[in-house]
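Summary for the steering committee. One of the milestones for this cycle was to obtain a three-dimensional model of the protein with EPU bound, which we needed before selecting residues for the alanine scan. The sequence and ligand used are listed below.
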Amino acid sequence: MDKYVVRGGNPLFGEVEIGGAKNAAVAIIPAALMANGVCRIENMPRISDVDLLLSILKQMGAKVRMVGKTIFEIDCTGVKHSKAPFDKMRRIRASYYLIGSMLGRFGNAKTAMPGGCNFGVRPIDQHIRGISAMGAGVEVKGGFVYAEANHGRLDGARIYMDKVSVGATMNIMIAATTANGRTVIENAAKEPHIVDVANFLNSMGADVRGAGTDTVKINGVADLHGGAHCIIPDQIEAGTYMAAVAAAGGEVLIKNVIPKHLDCIAAKLREMGVEIKEYEDSILVKRTRPLRRANIKTLPYPGFPTDMQPQFCAVLCMASGTSVITEGVWDNRYRYVNELKKMGAQIQADGKTAVIEGIESLTGAPVAACDLRAGAAMVIAGLCARGTTEVEDVSYIERGYEDFVGKLKCIGADIAVITEPDEPKSTDKEAIAG
Ligand code: EPU
């Protein structure tokens, strides 16, 4: 059981390199199951969620080879069955993409329901609606999902999503690549990683058009061959370092980013008095003045990302005046507020809204990472707090942040990992991030 010990007060200076996008990688790995042949994937984030998905594919018979620090070759040609290891599937939310890829490759799928939730209910009804519309019989029973295409192959369909869902858009897109005929997804999610996954599928011979708009059209092809793809930089990892500089002060060049993907995060930071300079593939963040208050509403892309909400809440704790955050994507994403309160934060969270009264300074305290982004928020709070903050349950953070401690240390943060002897595992700790 590791924990992070953060001593606050150091401003951050230097350069930090951003890795590949987690939420693209966790769809691209399951999508590789669709290919007969080798898929070469570059800029793979080195995070534990990726390791877990690769180990699921390996257990199913795939060959996985690391050919560079962030370059992997995945060959699923030898996978002959549509059954994934249930225990591992339950540990990761993104395992739901295996439903789409197994249906697309084998015409059937037997999977465990994707892992529990750590910020309220996380249904998959839109995924099921989509694949049902494509002619699959789907049964959810006893924690398992059984799906079977009526005549061994899915049929193209016109699907209007009741709710904008990143996961359902990508799952239907993956499954539809080898369906009979054309699938049209209306009211699709538009996140950059949807475009990235579509590009990966097209590199394997798929015909996906319109990804990144609210209408995605997929013309089914007979089968997919191996492909090659370089994953886009992680918008949320970059945004997290931007928030860290805003909180701790200093000046950091964040490299390997697509500045366009960071527009709304940069706009909010400018509003708060942070200086931002954009370059071709990097962004400079400088904070020398006290922070101003701001209101934030999270929305699907291109709105302000929900996955930046906890980190910005931590930053706004030190801004002058009262800030209001409205969570527009998830029903309940404020569990971490109680942890920030242990550090002296003045926050009232009720339903979708959190009201933050800015204070002079947070005070270090023992806190827990309730989930991936909440964990990042605790570290950010620790960086600017007086005294020492100990963050527990950091395995959540390591699911989605590549070498978080190492990268923060390189820009001057006083942070260390302490390993303590394991306690007996509770099922709650198996809950999910991402
Ligand atoms: N929803 C439904 N039915 C569904 C699917 C979603 O009602 O079948 C609702 C959800 O309850 C939520 C909203 O639709 O209110 C959006 O959910 P979405 O499906 O977009 O979320 P997701 O695909 O499960 C991904 C990311 C999350 C990120 C959301 C929103 C992965 C593995 N996870 O989740 O990332 O918050 O999109 O952008 O891609 C994270 O990285 O920390 C994280 C939680």
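Key point for the committee: Confidence is low (pLDDT under 50) at residues 426-433.
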